[in-house]
Amino acid sequence: MNQEEFKRRRRFMMEEVGEGNIVIIASAAEKNRNRDVDYPFRQDSDFYYLTGFAESNAVAVFIPGRQQGEYLLFCSEFDAQKALWEGVHAGLEGAVEDYGADDAFPIEDLDDILPGLLENKARVFYPMGRDSELNHHILEWVNTLREKSRSGIRVPGEFVSLEHVLHEMRLFKSSQEIAWMRQAADISTKAHIRAMTSCRSCQYEFQVEAELIHEFMFHGLRSPAYPLIVANGANACILHYTENSSRLQAGDLLLIDAGAECNYYAADITRTFPVSGRFSQPQKLLYQLVLDAQLAAIEQVHPGIPWNRSHEIAIEVLTAGLVDLGILSGAVSELIEEEAYKPYYMHRIGHWLGMDVHDVGDYKLDGQWRVLEVGMVLTIEPGLYIPKEDTSVAPQWRGIGIRIEDDVLVTDSGCEVLTDAAPKSIQEIEALMQAG
Ligand code: GLY
Ligand code: MN
Ligand code: MN
After folding, report:
1. What pLDDT, on a 0 to 100 scale, did the predictor assign at position 337?
2. What mean pLDDT is predicted for residues 115-123?
3. Is 405 a known active-site residue?
4. 203 and 101 in a common domain
């Protein structure tokens, strides 16, 4: 792993935090699934962002300007038995040699060492939004210090959210991060192409899921970035459908929301295509409308443009289109005002993308939508979902769910669609599926 990247992040973070202060952050915890089996472990994104250290049971401490070392890692000591049963772990030596810590200590010594490190520090930066166990320990360490404090020892008086610093950093992607996101995007687009070309040999949604995962793993990415959605027909109208257990139906559309994770960076792609390889006329009309909205929204992605502009444009295109198709009736501006589109398009245009699929970073600054800047990555994913029981629309539209989602990098000249290689025009999809 590229240690320079992690070193650069730590340096930047410590400059933001400033001397005289301390940062404490814990790894994710293992989660039991049943009896002796745990869920696959995935490191906490903020912890990994700073350390590149993928083990559980670890705490990183940063003390900007400390002469004896600024970066301390508390982790498991090397244990031959543990290595035999669970595999390689860094141990204290590895923490220093391979992960760039200035010093490393056994995790069991945390309670003995931490109060001393808090001495004379003004502010403690730690992740406030989660990990109640760490929050609890920090209070205990501060109280221990307070009890022991002789005159002249200062006890930290301010507790500051580390997220505030880290999440602003994570919002802007470095060239290394973009390279990892590009790889996640490339392999995920291959998976969508494989799903389109193999769909007709599948009987169930989960068999298409298997094709997607095969492609991720075959190209070296072990994990999806989130539970995959493979939704036939009206299942696509359930936004977080992950059962993936229905039979594929030849006359239906199939909505696939699938992205892989590469070195902790997510891709997030949705494509919707006909199970049979040919769109019906109503499917074609609704699909083209969503695609028009998506293309118009992507056109808005440009440095200096407010984040929300894409959402507003998509709503305009979708509402006008729904009127043209007779699904809504009235004046477009009034329908937008009344949010008449909401029963059919109920989510926002997208989200920041990075280590977390719904990535960190503020969407508003001082109450205003923030403007896009070079290095941000976001998704653009409008959709239309016509409930099958909605008797207010003509039967031909009912039970159709469509979303088209791409990952977009903001660049100097506008934007780059990282996931462009996954076909999305009606012609391209039909041609690929006929050939497949
Ligand atoms: N796959 C989650 C999302 O599209 O937001
Ligand atoms: Mn998304
Ligand atoms: Mn998605």
Report:
1. 98
2. 95
3. yes
4. no
Nearest CA residue ID for atom 5, ligand 1:
358
For residues 151 and 277, state if they share a domain.
no
CA dihedral of 91, 93, 95, 96, whole degrees rounded to 10: 170
Residue having the nearest C-alpha atom to atom 4 of ligand 1: 268
Q: How confident is the model over 299-316, as pLDDT tens digits?
A: 999 999 999 999 999 999
Tell whether ligand 1 has an atom less than 6 A from the beta carbon of residue 261. no
pLDDT recorded at residue 46: 97
What is the CA(54)–ligand 2 centre distance, in A? 25
Q: Is 415 left (phi over 0), alpha (psi -120 to 50) or beta?
A: beta
Of 46, 209, 215, 257, the active-site residue reads 257
- Cβ of 357 below 6 Å from ligand 1: yes
Among 170, 203, 235, identify where a domain stops. 170
Same domain, 100 and 206: no
Cβ pair 61, 117 in contact under 8 A: yes
Question: Do both 129 and 201 map to the same domain?
Answer: no
Q: How many distinct structural domains can be found in the chain? A: 2
Burial of residue 429, with CB atoms counted within 10 A of its CB: 0-12 exposed, 13-18 middle, 19 or more buried: buried
Shared domain for 180 and 295, answered yes or no, is yes
For residue 257 and ligand 1, the question of a CB distance below 6 A is answered with yes
- 143 and 20 within one domain: yes
Show contacts of 96-99: CB within 8 Å, 24+ apart: 99/3, 99/6, 99/51, 99/52, 99/53, 99/73
Q: How confident is the model at residue 103 (pLDDT cuts 50, 70, 90)?
A: very high
* CB contact at 8 A, 310 and 406: no
Q: Is residue 211 located within the same domain as residue 258?
A: yes
Q: Which atom of ligand 1 is nearest to the CA of 226?
A: 1
Vertex 389 angle, CA 383 and 395, to 5°: 80
Is residue 385 annotated as part of the catalytic site, yes or no? yes
Ligand 1 centroid – CA 311 distance (Å): 16
Index of the ligand 1 atom closest to the CA of residue 381: 4
Write down which residue in 127, 153, 170 finishes a domain: 170
Flag whether the pTM goes above 0.85: yes
Residue 267 Cβ inside 6 Å of ligand 1? The answer reads no
Residue with the smallest CA separation from ligand 1 atom 3 is 268
CATH number at residue 25: 3.40.350.10
Question: Which residues span the domain enclosing 189?
Answer: 172-435
pLDDT digits 0-9 by tens, 265-281: 999 999 999 999 999 99
79 shares its domain with 227: no
Predicted confidence at residue 151, as pLDDT, reads 64
What's the average model confidence in pLDDT over 276-298?
Answer: 98
pLDDT, tens only, 57-88? 999 999 999 999 999 999 999 999 989 998 88
The answer to whether residue 192 is catalytic is no
CATH number of domain containing 312 = 3.90.230.10
